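[DERIVE STRUCTURE TOKENS]
===
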Amino acid sequence: MNDLKTRVAYLQGLSTGLELGESKEGKLLRGIIEVLDEFADSVGDLAEGQEQLEDYLESIDEDLYQLEDEVFENDAEHCICGADYLEVDCPKCGETVCFESDILQDDDIVEVTCPNCDEVVFVNDDNSYQSANRPEMLAGKEDNTRQESTEEDI
């Protein structure tokens, strides 16, 4: 930034040394140099503001990182789903899809689709569970007979 201000100052000195006088060309050149000086000031102000924004954003990022560490500190497996949810990875895009574990007890046929690519990742069809990969129980309790049938059918 200082380079731009230095160059404008050089032009101001050069125009003074040329003794342009009050001719039309002299007025024009002095006006152009004044506008260049104002542009250099504006660009300097913008650069300073940008630098302050970058510092502020960096501090917010650090605070967010600390907050994430505190929030996910108790989560040993770093699961993205909360309590009473199941987690399945989409076979098409690899996105982790979370859904409520209550779906396992639902009498209706329920298909869970990936929000990223709309691929069906889980279907509870007549108590025989189908999924792209075995759902991982994150929290909550299922009865043992249901878990055994789930493990055999998947």
Notes: The first strand starts at residue 85 and ends at 89. DSSP finds three helices and six strands in the chain. The helical segments are 2-17, 24-71, 144-153.
